[in-house]
Structure formats: structure tokens, C-alpha cells
Amino acid sequence: MTDSQWETVIGLEIHVQLSTKSKIFSDASTVFGGEPNEQANEIDLGLPGTLPVVNAEIFPKAIAFGLSVGAEIATTSHFDRKNYFYPDLPKGYQITQMDEPIVKNGCIDIELNNGATRTIRINRAHLEEDAGKSLHDAFPNMTGVDLNRAGIPLLEIVSEPDIRTADEAEKYAKSIHQLVTYLSISDGNMAEGSFRCDANVSVRREGEKELGTRTEIKNINSFKFLKYAINHEVKRQINLIESGQKVTQETRLYDSTKNETRPMRSKETATDYRYFPEPDLLPISLDQNYIDQIKKTLPELPLEKMNRYAKEHGLEEGDAKFLSNDLELAQFYESCYELNRDSKQIVNWLKGEMFNRLSNVEITIKDSPVSPNQLCDLIRRTSDGTISITTAKKIFGKLWEGKSFSVDKVITDEDLAQLSDGRQLDDLIDEAFQNNPKQIEQIKKGKTKVLGYFIGLIMKQTSGKANPKQLNDLIVKKISSLK
Amino acid sequence: MKVDKETVKEIAELANFRIEKKDEKDLIFGMQKILEMASALNEAQTNGVTPMANPHDASQTLREDICRDVEQRDSFLALAPLAEDGFFLVPKVVE
Amino acid sequence: MLDETLTEQIKGIREKKYSSFELTEFLLDRIKDKTELNCFISINDNILEEAKAADKELERGSDKPLLGIPIAHKDIFCERETKTTAGSQMLENFVAPYDATVVSNLKRAGAISLGKTNMDEFAMGSSNETSFFGPVKNPWDETRVPGGSSGGSAAAVSARLCSAATGTDTGGSIRQPASFCGITGLKPTYGRVSRWGMIAYASSLDQAGPMALTAEDCAIMLKEMSGHDKKDSTSAQVEVDDYRALLSRPLGKLKIGIFEPLMKELDSATSLVMEKTIEELEKIGMTFTEIDLPNFSYAIPAYYVIAPAECSANLSRYDGVRFGYRCDEPSDLKELYQRSRTEGLGKEVKNRIMAGTFALTSGYYDAFYKKAQQVRRLIKNDFVEAFKKVDVIIAPATPSTAFRLGEKAGDPKEMYLQDVYTTSSNLAGLPALSMPAGFVNNLPVGVQLIGNYFDEAQILAIAHQFQSITDWHLTSPDIPT
Lengths: 483, 95, 481
Prior knowledge:
The complex is a heterotrimer. Helices cover 39% and strands 20% of the residues of chain A. By secondary structure, chain A is an alpha+beta fold. In chain A, a hairpin with a 4-residue loop joins strand 13 and strand 14. The termini of chain A are far apart. By secondary structure, chain B is mainly α. Chain B has a two-stranded antiparallel ribbon with strand order 1-2. The longest helix of chain B has 19 residues, at 21-39. The two termini of chain B are 38 Å apart. The mean pLDDT of chain B is 92. In chain C, helix 2 (20-33) runs antiparallel to helix 3 (47-59) and helix 10 (299-314) crosses helix 13.
């Protein structure tokens, strides 16, 4: 906060959708975007007599997360029922983990703007089912309920209130996002609701020991909004206190169009969730060997990747970081590196053409129309002098637009290869020298600027295809022989 | 353990029941009787006893992550008192 | 055909004494004659077709164990394209799009479904008086209750409307009505039979079981009903015995445990029945030993915390949104919830939901719910200790014979005490059966045998051998003794 006499205390609860094919307690599909209620079976709908059965796939994913944040993994845990009524909660209770979460006491380092790092403690991460979705605007006077999301497996990651600014909150959320996508335990797609944040925010005067009354801002689905929502909420709370009022403990919603938070009316009534062990499920026992096995197969994390790129691929730290920050980008890079060891060139292309193109469209590099193979072909053809960088960029554009698929074929079909045949260039130079005796005279007088005149002339003659470097060298050589 | 009107009101709120004046006495009586039976638990010596949620000390078997298409959407929706365009409908909720 | 047991019906059909079609027609007529008992909530309209199909299947040489046998299901088991009401207005028109595993297992064995039997609403009751569809009457005395909650199934078997029926038992709901109606009823070990498709009352206590005239019939039914089910995580991965084959094996000198305080509470006539039963059992080689169950008296209190607590959550899904009863013209969501639930659920169900909700609130959780779960472990431990000394435990099934309709309506506590001998085996998860053992004032009295975990074979064998030297189980209400 700008006002130095106030301290902000923030804790985040992040809901991460674990990527599984079927739901946490039923075998309905988790694919995004189905017709309403098309992916809700009798278990998801909570029909009478139905029972949950646990999807095995959620455990290795939750454990991988836990191990990556140095947490304890509970060898025995169980599910509980959390009771409350809401139309998108079919059974009238959510199956979650209350007193024995699978992951406890971890932490993650975030890098601050000044380059320093801060450790944010993670209190717990537990497994639970998602609720459905309510549509408030589709029907007059009615709310429509779509239960396709009901039963989607979630890992809820709960931080300690260690976060002090909206900026830190954003950095923490981004670090968690990077981690879960790196571990491939979630697609992290925020637009589709695979990664959502709730922020617990309170303020207190500098130096005070007691925490202030907190509010919980629900369901924030972008990093930008997370920052906005917290900043707005902090301002609101300080204003309240400074004007002699009190902050009420409540759940609030962030309205991104108005950039403000407001109380959530549907959650107004005081609730006692009446947690108790889910009697339809038995305790979960995990073998230490199983946990160790997962530890062995953990993928390389961002920091390790960055160091490897710097050390083994000879990349500058900035470039190594650029690549390792994003798993898909790193994977694309590595596919290229398999084909071509010119790491610097690859990075330049990714930072340049690829990055520019991607920032204009809604796809990620995974779905780039230009494949690692194609990019490496381009790099090869520029390195061996077949084409110029300018031509290569043109070809990249054609590949991107799907107008062609083979680099070499474009070069041949459109006759884009550089003229690098020394003899042919020699002939052209000789011809040019013969036709321009005046300029030759000037050269002989030492006016080297005329060099550019000849390069331009031959470039024009060859429609720009002459290999510029080679041409330059040959002309220089010829001129010196004239002297 | 004495159940009073205030308790019944709070609990009915959690359980989502509407209590008509005429039923209030009955409900207090009914609840009271069950809780009276339960109150005998106080005398049991349970220090250090681990609560038991399930009769067997077994652990959960897990299901393979395989998905199956939901083919009965229409018959599910047909069970609903009110459904339209594939949605279950409830009176408008203000968030 | 009247008075034939399941075993006899199986033989009758197999040996072509009569067809499944003829048997079914006979039973349908009998049901019509006995509509005043109110045993059924619905009858399978299609059953004669199914009987014909079964007869054809028999012609083709099928050897399904229950081929063509009409059985009745308690209306708590979901059956595809059939109304499943759980005795509640809430589900008056609910047609499940799936079969309960019990239903599909029995279908697979060849049985055909006669209809769905009446029951206390959501299995909450001991007299069948809480049913939305009206009380069931006891075939032995129509002014009396059949017991509950599986009262419709018990009365149907007792009145010879079917030879076997399914029931469920959460605190005594198979054994108490079996005792009141003079039939044999078995609550298996928790997890023996899948709960998939069986409408939940209290998940950690509910268990489905067979109700029939004889232990042999129960053995046949249990084998077909049992087994691990991938759809029920709490169903046990323990092999299913061939219970019928084990019925007549020599039992040797089995030790039966008696918990003396239970016997002392009985009135003199019931005491006499118990004593005679013990004498008969001694004749077939049983010996009796006293055991101690120090926490037995806490079973009822623990049960009346755990069952209501679990049911308070299990019944939250009845909210008028996706299925079931919905109130007229709700003005907002809250009204939709409150009125649908208040109007659609009966008084006893609401009482239990209220008590259970209370027991789970943060202020009372430790004193009620947690304490009850601790007591539950103590009760289980007592049984585990007892089974180190004895093979089986004998106990009364009910504190009295069938009482009059309305007799206990004023005092729920008296009703709850109906379960005094039965709840402990639900809490511990042990198998227990009630077998007819005599009469008091022309009303049947049952005696309970509690077995060790997954040893249904043993209590069934004892009951079978007891039934081979007694005939209480064959006495029909049409010709009272």
C-alpha cells in the first residue's frame, strides 16, 4: 500500500483442476465445453442410491505437487463431507478433505521485483470435487444449472497469510501456475476455470500483532484481476477503518467491469459446514514406496531447466530464463534443439518471429502452425547461405499462414534461393565493371563508396537474391585487384 | 440437553426446513427425544479412543481413470421438476 | 402353491410342477386378496410377460438358480423404469434410470420382480407407520404393525404373497419386522452386499439382506445378492460362500455367547421362548457361555447420533431441483428449498435430519458425533473380544411382540427402543439374523443370532439346523397356532 502506516495480509486459496479424463468420483468426462449437463451422470447429479468411487489418477498428481513444494505427503488421508445448499452442488454437500489433507506444510519461493526472493508457506493442499455452474442471465427470472463441472477433480492449494502486497499475490499465483503446468498435473487454463483464486485479505496498522478482520474474494480467474481485486479491497478496508467503521467478515465477488468488490448475497447467511468423514468412502492409504516412485519421476522444474540451458546449451541467463519460464515454450525449444544445436539462433527465432506472431493470436506455442522441424529447416537454410534472413522471415510467414509446409519446397517453387554461385557472381561483377567504366575510374581514384553502387546494381539485376555477404566480398576482392 | 425455539430455528435454517408455528412444538419434541437418547453417551469412557467411521479397517480401492459417455441426459433431465434447453431451472439466484 | 418356500418354488418350477407363469398368476391373485395389508407400493405390470420369458428360458435349458421366481423388492432399491419411492412423497414419482446392484444381481440369477414393498419413509421407523403410502398391517393381527422399516417385505413373505423379498437394515430394519411377522431375516456383514442403487439412510450402517420363510431360503438369496461391486467402495472384497451348501455341514460343538443382562429385561413369556430356543440349540450340539459386552448399553445412543447425522447429509439431495417433489410456485430459491423439503418429507424424517444436523454443528460435534464414533469403536472392540471366546452370540431380536398400530406413535422414545437388541451389530458391522422361535399370545417371536465378520454361513447353518427340528418358521398366519 502507498500509505506506509498500513500493512496488508493476504492468503490465497488456489483451485487447480487436475487433468484427468474422468471425474474425481464418477466416470463422466471432464472435457471442457460440452452441451449443458451432457457430462453429468447419475453420480454427478446426486441421484438417490448413487455412490462415489475415487479416481486413482488424482493421487500421483496431488503427490507430485506436494513433493515439488517440499511438503509432507499424508500416507493416510480421508474425504469429508462439507454441507451446504446451493443449486450447483447436487448432493447438498461437497466431498473434500478437511482434517487429513493429502499435502501439508510446503513452501514456494517467489522472486520480487527487486530481485530478492520471498518464501510463501503453503499450509495444505487437498483434493475435492468442483461444483457445477449457474447461469443467471440465460432465462427470464430463472437460473439455469449446468452440472458438467460437478465432480471435476480439484486440488485446493491454501497458502499461509504470508503475502503482503497484490504484486506478491500475483507472483505467488503465477509461480503456482507455472509449477502445476510444469508438472503437467493441470492445463492451468484460466479462461476455462482450470485455475481459480480466492483471496483472503485483511489490513492492520504497521506494527500491530493481531490480524485484522478479513474478507474473502471469490473466484478470480486472471492474474490481472487478482491484483486489481486485492488493491481495490485493501483500499476499501482502509477507508472503512479510517472513517471509523469496521470491516465485516464476509465473502465478496470481484466485478471486473466496475473494478470493485461487492458482498456475495447468496453466501450471506452464516454457515456451519458440519464437516464429517464421508461414509461412502474408506480412508486412503498410500504406500511410501509409491510416493518415492513418484518422486523419482518428477519432471525437471523451471529453475533446474534454466540452469541446464545456461550450462549445457551455452545460453545467456536471460534467454535461458525466457525459455524455461513456460513449459510449452521450453518443450518447443527442446524439440528444435534436438534437430539443431544452434541454441542461440533458435532462441532468436522464438523471441522474435514466433513471439510476435503468438502475441497476436489466441493460441499457445503448442498449437503453433510452424513446427520445430520447419523452424529448424529455416535456420539451416539461413546458416548455409541458401536464403537470407529477410527471405527466411517471409517464408516463416507463409508457413504460419498454412500456405506451405516445406521450407525447401517454398525456396524452389518461388525461386527464393540466394545466388551464391561464385562464378555466376563473378560474371555479373565483370559485366557490371565493363558497363560502368566511369565508376571504375572513380574506384581507381580511391573512392570506395562506389562499392555500394555495384552491390545495388547487381542486387537489382538478381531481384535481391544475390548472397549479400558473398557479393560484397567478391566486389571488394575485385576492386583491390584493380589497384 | 434442552432444545429451545431458537435452536430449532437455527437448525431448520441449516437443514432448509420451513417451520410453521403449528409444527414447531412437534419438531422441538421430536428433536428433543432423539437428543435425549443420544445424551447417554456422556457416560461412556472414551478417552484416547480413535473415532470409527466405518465398521471395517479397510482402505479405499481406486478406480482407473477411464471415462464413459453419459448417454442418459434426456432421461435425467426428464426427472427434473423444471428443465429447459438442457439446464435444470431454479428461481433466479442473485450472487 | 400356498405356503411353499423359495426352495420348494425353485424345485416346483424346475421339475415342471408348475410354470413361472402359473406361480406368478397365483401370487398376483393372492396379493389382490390381501390388499388390505398394504404390503406393496407398486406391482410390476410386466411381470406375467417376464414369467413367460422365464418359462421359455427354462425350456432352453437355462440353469439360473432363481429362474422364474417372483420376488419382491423393498421400495428402497432403484429399479430401472420402475417407481422407487423409499416410502416418501418426496420420491412419489421418481423413476430411477438404473438398477440397484441387488436388483441386477437377482435378475441375473433369473428372479423376476413382483413389485416394490412398502416401508417406513427412507427406512426411518420401526413400525411402517411413517410411510407416505400408509401403514402395513401385520398378517398375524391386522390391528398390529409388521415392524419396520422393511415391514412391507416382512408382511408380504409372512402372508405368502412371495416366498422371498429384499430388505435393508440400518438399526434392525430386517430383523425386527422378521421377528414381528414370524419369518427369517438376515442382515449381512457391512459390505457383504453392494449399496449401489439402494437409497441411503445412514451409509456406514445400511446393509441389504434377504427376508424369507427359512434360513435355507435366505442362504439362497444371500449368495445371489452378495459380492464386491466396483460401484460401491465400501463393498467388501471377500469371497462369497456357497451358503446353501454349508447349511447342513456338521457344526460340532459350537460355543454360543449369551450376554446375560439382555435376557433379564425380557418378560416371562418371551424369556420362556428364549430358554426353549437354547434347549433346542443344545440338542443340535451347541454349548452356551456367558460373555461381556460392557458398552452394549451405548449402542442405542450412538446409533441415534450416527444414523441421524449421516442421514442429515444423505437427504440434502432432496432439494426439489433435479428430481423429486418440488413445491408449487416458489418465489425464490430459499422458498424452493424450504417448502419442497418441508412438504415433501415426513415428520419422522425431519426429526432425524434436525437431530443429525444439530449433532454435527461445530459446537456439538465433539460431544455428539465424535463421541458416538468413539463409542462405536468400543462396541466393535467388545464384540471382537467376545468372538475370541465364542463362535456366535444369541440375543433377543425385539423387546416385545408386534404392537398395535398407533400404540407408540405418541412416544418416539419407545419406538426407538425397538432397536435395543439390533443396533449394536450395525454399529460393529456384524452379520445377524432373526429366526422364528415361538409365539407369545399368538404373535410370533424371533431370536437373534449374531455371527462373526463375513461368517454368515455359520449363523445360517445354525438357524437351518434349528429349523430342521422346529417348525415355527413354517407356521402360517392363516392358521395360527
